[in-house]
Amino acid sequence: MPFQLFSFHPKVVAGVKAAGYATPTPIQAQAIPKIMAGHDLMGLAQTGTGKTAAFALPILHRLMQGPRKQVRALVIAPTRELAEQINDSIQELGSQTRLKSITVYGGVGVNPQVEKLKNGVEIVVACPGRLLDHINQGTIDLSSLELLVLDEADQMFDMGFLPDIRRILKHLPAQRQTLLFSATMPPEIRGLAREILRDPVTVQVDTVAPAATVTHALYPVAQHLKTPLLMQLLQHTDTGSVLIFTRTKHRAKRLGEQLEKAGYTAASLQGNLSQNRRQAAMDGFRSGAFQILVATDIAARGIDVSQVSHVINYDIPDTTEAYIHRIGRTGRAARNGDAFTLVTDEDTAMVRAIEKTLGSAIERRTVAGFDYNVQAPRKDEEFARPPRPPRPQPKAKKEVAGQGSGQPRSGQQPAKQGRPAGTRPSSPGAGRQQQRSRTPR
To answer: What region holds the Helicase C-terminal domain (predicted)?
Structure first.
C-alpha cells in the first residue's frame, strides 16, 4: 500500500517523497485513514513503529486548509528529546507546506518561545511543565486548537505528568480531535483515555520483537564489580558507538565521569543537565565525537542514532518493554548489533521475564581474565557521595587576666550563681539518675 492511496494534499505528498518514505508501516496503514476521517484514536505502539508520521501526516494534511498563524495542533510529549524528534519529523514531512511548528519545553529561555508564539505558528510540540507556564502567563492562545496528540502517555504517567495533563485539558476547546498513543496501557492511562476520547477507534500494533540482527548476552557479576567488568568488556570488544543504560541519574553521571577518566570519549544524558548540555551530548554522540553515551531510560526517550553497535544494560531494566525499547537502539537498518546486560543474583526474575518475551534463553558469558572473586568492601560506596569532612572543633579560649578570680571582663555580665558556667540546667529526676549511677549493681 503506497502513501499515494491516502490522498494527502500535494504539498504533503511532496514532503513524503523528499523524506524517502515509500511504504507505510503497520501503525501508519491502520491509523492514518482513521485520523483523516476525524475519529478520536487510541494507538498502542512502541517507539520505532513509525507512529510519529502516523499522526504528523494527517495533521499536516488537515492544516493545509484553514487559517494560518494560529495554534491549531498541539502535541504533548514527556521529554525534551522526544519533543525535538517529533518536531524534526513534522518539519521534514511538512517542508513544502509552509506550516510552522515549534517546540516548547523547560531548561531553555522562555523569551524565544514567546517571540515565536507571537509571530504565529500552527503546530506546537510541548512538554507539560513549560506548556503550563505559557498557559498561566497568557503567552499561548489555544482557543483555536483543533487537534491534540498525547504521545508516550505511559511515560508521562511514569514521570508524574498526569496531573499537569489534566490541568492543560481544562484550557483546551471541548470540540477537538484527540489522539492518544502509548506503548503500554496501565489502568491510569486507560482511565485517562475514557475521560478525553470520544467514541475512539483503537489501533494496536503487536509488541515489537527485537530485530533479528541483535545478539543478546548476559554477564553475571556482583554489584560492586559492575564497573570494573564494564571496563574490561569495553577493552576486549570491538565496538563502534556504545549506548549504556543505568537506572538512576546519579549513576549515569558518575559512570560517564569514570569512563572519561579511563580515556573514553564519553558523555552522560540525564535529567539534571541543562538543555544545552543535553543537546550537546546528543549531537556529539550522533556525530561520533562521543563514542559512548550513558543514559537513563527517561533521558533516552527520543534518541534516534542509527549506527549504535552495542547497547549495554549496566542496570537491568524494570520491565520487558523497557528492555525491548533499549535494545531497539542497535541492529538498525540491517546492521548487526549487540545487547549486553550486566546481571546480579537479584535480577533473576526479570531475566526470566525477558527470556519469556524473547522466546529463548539468553547466553551467559564471562570475560576471560577478570577476577570475579574480589570481595565487596564493608559498605559498597561505589556510587555514594563522599562523606562530609568533620567540622573543625573550636579552639579552647585562653584564660585572660581576671577570669577565674570572680571578676568579669569589661562589658561582661557576672555569671549567674547556682551552677557552673557552661553546664546544662538539671532536668527533673537528674539527681535521682546520678544517685542510681552511684549505687553498686
So the answer is: 229-378
